[in-house]
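Subject: sequence -> structure tokens, single chain

Hey, anyone have a minute? Need the predicted structure for the following. Not urgent.
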Amino acid sequence: MPQGLLGDAARLQQALLNYAANAVKFTHGGTVTLRAAGVEDTHASALLRFEVQDTGIGIAPEVLPRRFRAFEQADNSTTRQYGGTGLGSTFWFAAAQVLVVDEDEVNRVVTLALMATALPHTEAMADGLEALRRAALNPYDLILMDVHMSDLDGLETTRRMCDLPGCAATTSVVLTANVFAEDRRRCLEAGMDDFLTNPVVPEPLFETVMRWLLRARAAVRGCSDLPPETVQ
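Reply:
Had a minute. Here:
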């Protein structure tokens, strides 16, 4: 493992506890194993992979034909001991750090809640100055940036962030209700990479975020393990 890492220990612990609790629930005998390993280590950041593996209770043969039907569980009875499938598996997540910067509290809370379902290491803050201070200490992989903020707007925040050590590779995705050509031009000139309408819609949000995160990883790896369409 790389040494001297800075991160969100509380959220890492929460994610691991969620995975481990589910593994323990289904594993009356056998083993539950937790692992952490370094996947990538550069001068500015590291990618870690966390795994929870269990031997599970297995799946009865009569359950297998309906295993992949929607809304199915291995035990559908009203007296079941617990829900879920119960197969022995390895579940894993990687800690990519994402930041949401939005002055509007409702938009900020909604976007953070959506992001946290897929990327538990997502943080949120309400102003550009605080975002700059945090990014200077801990560069992010991707930032979802509101344009219209009172203390320091999203365009100026992005310009200043591009000059911070370790932040040159950070992807900035603008959150805005304005989608006119002139607005897009100003955002690109400020150093932003993509656009999402605010309030966000889940499908475009996840598609955009994962596309840019995969593109960043492909650049580090020389695109050796991703198909061309993944990094367009």
